[in-house]
Amino acid sequence: MSETSHSKNIVLVHGAFADGSSWSKVIPLLLAKGYKVTAVSNPLTTFQEDVAATKRAIAAQDGPVTLVGHSYGGVVITEAGNDPKVTALVYVAAFAPDAGQSIVEIGKAFPPPPGPQTAVPVGDGFILLSPEGVATDFAQDLSEEEKALMIATQPQTSGSIFGAQPTQAAWRSKPSWYIVASNDRMIAPEHEASMAKQIQATTTTLPASHVVMLSHPNEVAKVIEDAATGAR
């Protein structure tokens, strides 16, 4: 395969209320296939700083990059994915706005999911999902031990990021893949399906919670590998 159609570098971008450990089950599967994998640590302070962190991760790669985003991470990759090194985009139960669109704006046409309503303020404009919210709406198909770990490692998320608007949508010029989580309680599944259709993504639907990469890591890794090899 030519270099332009095959990427051995995979950059994973987590979403709100999560950190790089949300990719902990997918990373070993990709490493075993010979990929170089980097999980970005988004500060979740501002959209601009999250995009900057992702761009630094892309810059550190030695060739073409498959850029993967979960949840709010989809907004980040929509902006950072305009980098010329990025050859493919993978949206994992993620937001895929167009230029000038925010998460709030693109979600208005769909039923409000219950998960975001469990967020509680912690000061300085930051929020956390309540432990109950994580257990019942964010990661409901994980084990009790895994839920407890997600609650313990949940980073504070700035509420301002949900108003972020990409300046240019990378999916308009890059091939995209999308994983719809049909039991998602953070983003309406019908909203995910609509976004996948809008960006003309190669789409896979899995019977999973919002954290599909933790409950169905093999299937998620396979989609990422398809994107890295250009398989549609």
General description of the model:
Pfam families: Abhydrolase_6. This is Alpha/beta fold hydrolase. Keywords: Hydrolase. This protein has 9 helices and 9 strands. With 232 residues, the chain is of the alpha/beta class. The chain has one domain (9-229): Alpha/Beta hydrolase fold, catalytic domain (Rossmann fold). Strand 1, helix 1 (26-32) and strand 2 form a beta-alpha-beta unit. Helix 1 (26-32) packs across helix 9 (217-229) and helix 2 packs across helix 3. The chain is globular, with a radius of gyration of 16 Å. Mean pLDDT is 96; it is low at 1-5.
Strand fraction band?
15-25%
Number of DSSP E strands: 9
The first-to-last residue Cα distance is 15 Å
Strand arrangement, major sheet: 2-1-3-4-8-9
How many domains, as an integer? 1
Helix content: 25-40%
CATH superfamily label: Alpha/Beta hydrolase fold, catalytic domain
The biggest sheet, with number of strands, parallel, antiparallel or mixed sense and barrel status, is: 6 strands, parallel
Task: Provide the low-confidence segments as ranges.
Answer: 1-5
CATH top level is Alpha Beta
Mean pLDDT: 96
CATH topology term: Rossmann fold
| Helix-strand category | alpha/beta
Please tell me how large the radius of gyration is. 16 Å
Protein name: Alpha/beta fold hydrolase
GO molecular function, one term: hydrolase activity
Pfam families: Abhydrolase_6 (PF12697)
InterPro entries: AB_hydrolase_1, AB_hydrolase_fold, Sec-Metab_Biosynth_Hydrolase
